[in-house]
Amino acid sequence: MSEFAPICIYLVISLLVSLIPLGVPFPFSSNTSTYPEKLSAYECGFDPFGDARSRFDIRFYLVSILFIILDPEVTFFFPWAVPLNKIDPFGSWSMMAFLLILTIGFLYEWKRGASDRE
Amino acid sequence: MIIDTTTTKVQAINSFSRLEFLKEVYETIWMLFPILILVLGITIGVLVIVWLEREISASIQQRIGPEYAGPLGILQALADGTKLLFKENLLPSRGDTYLFSIGPSIAVISILLGYLIIPFGSRLVLADLSIGVFLWIAVSSIAPIGLLMSGYGSNNKYSFLGGLRAAAQSISYEIPLTLCVLSISLLSNSSSTVDIVEAQSKYGFWGWNLWRQPIGFIVFIISSLAECERLPFDLPEAEEELVAGYQTEYSGIKFGLFYVASYLNLLISSLFVTVLYLGGWNLSIPYIFISEFFEINKIDGVFGTTIGIFITLAKTFLFLFIPITTRWTLPRLRMDQLLNLGWKFLLPISLGNLLLTTSSQLFSL
Q: Which reactions is this enzyme annotated as catalysing (chain A) (predicted)?
């Protein structure tokens, strides 16, 4: 427990370090006294049209789905990698089977074109 | 470092009073001290990187660079930061105020947390966790959420696209990076950063993980460049396409916080290259004065600690020349090229590297 105490304290301090600068310019912020064009979205000098939160490319979504599949699987490798010299061959080879399944899934996704951007 | 001094002081206190909670309070307060020193050091490190980048950029482009603020323009970054602190704080009228304000802070916090586990000397680490590098990987993947929040909160088309691009790029390159770190912890049989450095301490620089993991080293550099959004991969803030990406609507210190976050990220990836691949605080000269130099690393006093910090920082800042010079030599990739490089080149290569490392570890048992 004590080895995680520095993390908590450091978390509080880094919160302070990044939140205090946000508070400093408040005396100088003058949202009320400026003209409305200054606060509108920047679109190269034209009046902004439409809403920015419209449709976006589905491929960004695909990338995040692929990430969600692959990242936890990679995360599972860490508890196996550290004591590799202490576990028996069964343990190491069962992780190889896991890696094989991961690779097959990745190849399938590749052949289906989920990571194509055209 | 913390433990030694604390135990003696705590014994002294216990002789005065036997209250247990007083001891805990004292330990907590004593723990603040190294943390504050670390934060101060990080800030100075960021200022030095900004200065280095401006000077190197200037000399690559045959300019002079900053020269008026302080000797050789060292104080230029400090002057810029102070100016940004007193700038007007604009909040876009149609945007989401909370997401807009919190976004840069989240990016900074998540990157700052990674510095916990960097060993600067043989016992000079804030938290020597057994899950060390894993903490960095877990915490550093919070940063794209901050960028996404700021892109969404600005309600600007450029910002929105920039935020999406930043998130997609960070998560694409997260996996090759993790696989490279995984290969390192396979080699060292530990995820603790201190153990990883000590596994490289034999045979001088021939013991570096760089020689045992050349593929992993290159993949790590490329992925960490992409994680830092440095120039071959700076698509989220591509000036010619999206005005400044997710930073378009920002002004004042929030804009500055994004820059602090990006330089902090650059510094921490360089520190991790030093720790994981370049032997950390070890002097790394194999043949000359071998016994004397190895004894230096074992000295516990101020001298050994200072030398450890100096060696770590020297390796880090020498390595930093690579990302700074790539900024002025390589052209920017297209978005589909970027994602293809991540998913179809780096990921299979790092998987193969992991397989190679595993089999070499298994057969050498």
A: a ubiquinone + NADH + 5 H(+)(in) = a ubiquinol + NAD(+) + 4 H(+)(out)
User: In the A/B pair of chains, how many CB contacts fall below 8 A?
Assistant: 200
Sign of CA dihedral B186, B191, B192, B197: positive
Q: In whole angstroms, give the CA distance from residue B173 to residue B233.
A: 11
CA-based nearest distance A7→chain B, Å: 7
Q: B115: closest CA among B102, B124, B105? A: B124
Q: What is the pLDDT of residues A31-67, one digit of tens each?
A: 566 777 777 777 777 777 777 777 777 778 888 888 8
**B81 → chain A, closest CA residue:** A21
Domains identified in chain A and CATH numbers: 1-110 (1.20.58.1610)
A-chain residues near B164 (CB < 8 A)? 56-57, 60
Which residues in chain B are closer than 8 Å to A16, comparing Cβ atoms?
none
- Cα–Cα distances (Å) from B66 to B49, B59, B149, B292, in that order, read 13, 11, 34, 42
For chain B, domain boundaries = 44-86, 94-364
- CB count within 10 Å of CB B43 equals 15
Q: How far apart are CA A76 and CA B354, in angstroms?
A: 14
What string of DSSP letters covers chain A? -GGGHHHHHHHHHHHHHHHHHHHTTGGG--TTTS-HHHHS--STTSPP-S-SSS---HHHHHHHHHHHHHHHHHHTTHHHHTTTTTS-HHHHHHHHHHHHHHHHHHHHHHHHTTT---
Q: What part of B 220-259 touches A (C-beta under 8 Å)?
A: 243, 248-249, 252-254, 256-257
Q: Are B145 and B246 in contact (CB under 8 A)?
A: no
Report ipTM for this prediction: 0.83
Q: How far is A60 from chain B (nearest CA, A)?
A: 6
